[in-house]
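pasting for the record
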Amino acid sequence: LVQLSLRGQSKAVDAVRTNLDKLERSLQRIVENITELNARKESINVYDVHDRIDELFMVDLDTFVENRESIGHAFGLQTYADVMTHFATAERYLNRCWSASADGYVDEVQTCLTRAVAHFSAARQRLDQAIQDQQAATFHISS
């Protein structure tokens, strides 16, 4: 029974690690794509922005959302709340940007892109900090 329990715990830890890797990669691509889109916002036709959002973000947003609970398992609820507050806010701005693009509101598209960059970047910084803190704690324990 003890061995079965330990195997189950090991599988759970492996699943959380795998999910965290997916989270990191998807959030990195989101930040890179939103930063690039924001940098090019004045040269892109406003009516094309919502198509670019669909192309650039849907897969990574879905991946992040599907694996987000691993943040809480790995780092605790406070870190989960910190990351997800910024992520959800950024996602709302991205959705507003999509709608503004479909309606042709140039100023709203540009404003929402800028705000989405800030919040996706903050989510990534908070997740990266949690990972670094955990690695530092693991290093101190094993030293």
